[in-house]
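hey can u run this one w/ calcium ion bound, need the structure tokens asap thx
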Amino acid sequence: MKLGRRVSTLALPVSGAIAAVFAVAPQANAAAACYQGEFCLYQHANYTGSVYKLRAGQNVSNFGYEHFTNGDPLNDNASSVRNLTNRVAFLYADENFQGAHIVIGSQTSIPDLGHYKVPFGDVISFNDKASSIDW
Ligand SMILES: [Ca+2]
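ok here u go:
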């Protein structure tokens, strides 16, 4: 969970009048839309914070080279996910599709990877762990 962006916004040298305009503008952390056909990884729980989008079948072997749209690193930093594709995706804790993994079913959203319900199993935390994805 990163709050740095909000803090840096407050540090901008704006007048009180301009700051008041910004106060009613949409927040930078508002949920980014995820559309049919997209797989969306979010920086924070409940599909908030910045987003990183994929298409069905698009494998990424190392999140270490990827960033959310706000520039923050994707690796070990995703907290919720929407799979609005018609494919099943596998998120791995390590690069190159290694380590523990979770299954994100087609048309399935997980609002908090910190409380992922393993099918027929326990609730585990996969928060801030994902490092690769395949299909
Ligand atoms: Ca990881």
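Strands lie at 38-44, 48-55, 80-83, 89-94, 98-104, 108-110, 116-117, 123-124, 132-134. anyway lmk if its weird
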